[in-house]
Amino acid sequence: MKKTTKLHTAVTILIVVMIVLSFTNLFKFQINGEPLKLAGISVIVGIIAYFTTRKTNENKYDGFNIKTFIGSLKDKSVILLFLLIIITNVACFVIAKLWFPAYNEHVLARAGDFLDFGNLPKLFLELVVFALGEEIAWRAFFQKQTSKIMPFIPSLILASVMFSLGHFSFGIPIIVFYDLLFVFIDSVIYGIIFKKTDNAWCSFLAHFLANLLSTILYWF
User: Fold this and answer.
1) Which of 18, 32, 145, 200 has the highest Cβ tally under 10 A?
2) By percentage, how much of the chain surpasses pLDDT 90?
3) Boundaries of every domain in the chain
């Protein structure tokens, strides 16, 4: 009993740590004049948290089960959500081209430190690793655990807001808002896919395809 209580306490602490780290993106922390980006650590915390606290699930593979991955994709509603994520990312690109030409530069400045656009094989691997890591952290751990203590919708919104803050980067206010709006929309779709499948492999695939599509569109 005490062991279970300690585990639940650890889950709560780790959720709070992820939230605090996400909020640090709103402040300009620097070391020797270089920006210090602490929000990315929330993903590392979430990954470690999932694998160390998954005993709180009914089955330790809940939320991240490769064996049920293919079967989960047979759900027509999940396929429709995959199509929706493609539509939203194309819409984001088209709207930006027409009305927010500075958007691409903003995204490149935000993601350029983490992605090697000069090496395509490495870039592909980075897109896989980052998408998988974020889905384990924000869906398999954060959303799944918070949905145990609050209804699904508040849990989904909380996870998506924190996920969006983790992608915050200073810039022109309207461009920053536009960027975070579509990050939030994408996150909501990932979260619904996760809810329907209880499998971060599925939300990872949607996340990876969205990032890959955005990267391809960026080159136009």
Assistant:
1) 200
2) 75
3) 2-218
Residue with tokens 């990267």: 215
| pLDDT band at 108; cut points 50, 70, 90 | confident
pLDDT at residue 138 above 90? yes
| Beta carbons of 39 and 21 less than 8 angstroms apart | yes
Section 33-59 average pLDDT: 89
Residues near 12 by beta carbon (within 8 Å), at least 6 away in sequence: none
Secondary structure (DSSP) of 171-205 = S-HHHHHHHHHHHHHHHHHHHHHHHHH-BHHHHHH
Both tokens of residue 212?
A: 């890959």
- Check if the beta carbon of residue 146 is closer than 8 Å to that of residue 73: no
Percent of the chain predicted with pLDDT > 70: 96
Q: What is the mean pLDDT of the chain?
A: 92
| CB distance 203 to 61 below 8 Å | no
- Residue 31 β-bridge partners: 34
From CA 184, how far away is CA 211, in angstroms rounded?
14
Q: Which two tokens stand for residue 142?
A: 């954060």
